[in-house]
Amino acid sequence: MNNKLQKLSLIALFAALFSYVLIRASGLSFTHDESLSYTIIKGSPLWATSPNNHTLNTWLMGICSTLFGDRELSLRLPNVLAFLVFSTFVFLLLKGAKSSLFALLGAILMVVNPFLLDFFSIARGYGLSLGFMAASLYFFLRRDLSEHTGNSFLLDFTVAMFFAFLVLLSNLSAINFYLALLAVFAVQYPLWAFLYRKGKTWQHLAFAGILALASWSLKGSLTTLLQLSRENQLYFGEKKLVGSLDSLINCSFYFSTYPDGVNTIVKYAVIGLLATAVVTAAFQKFLHRRLQKVLSLILLITAGFVAEHHLFGANYPAERTALIFIPLFGLAWYEMAAIWRQKLRPSLQPVSDWGLLALLALPLVYHFASNANLQYTHTWQYDAHTKDAMEVVARANSAIGDGTETISISNSALFEPAINYYREINKLTKVQPATRDPLNIHATFIYEFEANELVPKDLERVAEFRDIKTVLFRGKAAVANIETENLPK
Asked: What is the SS3 assignment for 410?
C-alpha cells in the first residue's frame, strides 16, 4: 500500500465494521446453536459429540466464561476478536493495491457481506475460522515462487498450515480448505526447487517433515468426520453442487427481497467472473501468481466436495458451511482486476477504479446498509426475541418470591436451548427447565410461533413479537402470586 490515504480508508472501513460487530455481539439475543455450545462448556455430554461442537470455539467460550462470566458478549468475545484478525490480514493482503479506491474495492469484495459479518457477532466457530483463514491466505500468498529462499518457503509453509489447522479446529466443515492448501504447498516446493535450483538437503528434509506433520494432524478431524457420518449427523447441506452457490447467494441477500430473476443473474455473474479469472490466470506463469494460487484453492476445495459427494454420499456445503467461499471469491476477483488494471494506460487506471467501484462495490455497500441491523441474524432470526420473552418470565420469577410455586414453560423445540440459557444465566430458580416436549397448554407460559394452530385461541397474549411472528402466551396453569397485568406487553 503506497500512501496514507489507502491505509486510512481501509482502517476506517474496518473500524466501522468492527463497531457494528461489537454492538451486535453485546445486544443480539443468544441463539439456538450458541446455547447448545453453552451446555457443552457447562458439562453436558449431549451435544459434545455433535457437529454443533466447534472445538476451538467451545474451548474459548469456556475460557471466557471462567474469566468474564456467561453474558452474551463474554461468550462471543473470541469471534469478535477474530474479526480483528480477519480484518488485519485482509488489510495485509491488500497492501499492494495501487490506489486507495482499488484497495477499498478489494476490502468490500471480501468483507462487506451481512451474512458473513453475522458470524463475528455470535459464539460459533465460523468467525474464528474466517479470521484464521485470512491469516493462512496471507502467508500462502505473500511471496511468488521466484521470491522464495528455502528458509522463507519453510517459514510460510509452516505458519500458513498452523493457521489452517486453527481453521480446522474452529470449523470442521472447512477441512477441504486445509487439504487444498496442503496440496498446493506440496506441489509448489518441488516445483520451486526444480525451476530455480534452490534448496539444500536439510531444507528438503525439513519440508518433508512439515508435510508429514501437517498430514498427520488431519487424523483427529478425519476420525471425527467418520464418526459423525456413521451416526448420520452430517445431514446438513445440498444435494447438488449448484445448490451450494444458490444457498450462499440467498443467504447473502439476507432479508432483501429483489425482483424475480435477480438470483439467477447474480449466480451467472459469479460463475462468469470466476471463469474470466480462470482464463486470466491461464496467461500467467504457472503457480507463480496470487490469482493462480487462489483459484487453485477454490478449484481443489470444490473438487474435494465433488469427490466426497460421490465417494461417501456427503452433501455439498450450504449456507454457513459454504461461508469460506465469500472471501475466496472476493480475493480472486480482486486479483483478476489487478492484472487487468496493470494492462491499462496510467491515465485510464483511475477511471477503471471508479468504474469497478460503481459496478461491484457500491451495490454491495448499499445492500449491506439496507440489511444492517442490531436485532437479527439471518440463520437464527427466530431467536431474535427469546431474550425479551425471558425478561417477562424473569419478572414472573421475581413475583413469586419465596413461595413453593414454580413456573413452567411450553415452547417450540427451536426455542428450548436459548430459553434454558437465559433461565440459567439469570438464575431463574423458580422456572422449570424448558424441554422439547409437545405443546402443554397447562404450562405457566407458552412461547410459540403465531402459526402454531395447536395453541388455543383464547389464551392471553402476554407479549407479541410481530416481526418474527412469535407470541408469549399465558398458559392455563394458575400461579397465584403472578399478576399478569403487571407484566410488560
From this structure: strand
Neighbours of 218 (CB within 10 A): 16
- Residue among 232, 202, 7, 192 nearest 104 (CA): 7
Distance CA 427, CA 306 (A): 48
Place of cell 487439504: 179
Please state, in angstroms and rounded to a whole number, the distance separating the CA atoms of residues 391 and 421.
12
Question: Got the DSSP string for 206-257?
Answer: HHHHHHHHHHHTTHHHHHHHHHHHHTT----SBSSHHHHHHHHHHHHHTT--
Beta strands across the sheet bearing 409-411: 409-411, 445-449, 470-474, 460-465
Tell me the per-residue pLDDT of 41-98, one tens digit each, with 9 for 90 and over: 998 887 877 878 889 999 999 999 999 999 999 999 999 999 999 999 999 999 888 8
Question: In whole angstroms, what is the distance from residue 31 CA to residue 37 CA?
Answer: 10
> Domains, the chain, ranges and CATH?
4-371 (no CATH), 385-486 (3.40.190)
Helix (H, G, I), strand (E, B) or coil at 103: helix
Give the tens place of pLDDT for each residue, 229-247.
777 767 788 999 999 999 9
CB atoms inside a 10 Å sphere around CB 428: 21
Burial class (CB in 10 A: 0-12, 13-18, 19+), 349: middle
Regarding beta strands 409-411 and 445-449, do their DSSP bridges make them parallel or antiparallel, or are they unpaired? parallel
DSSP structure string for 1-40: --SHHHHHHHHHHHHHHHHHHHHHHHHSPPPHHHHHHHHH
pLDDT at 486 over 50: no
Q: CA–CA separation, 139 vs 143, rounded Å?
A: 8
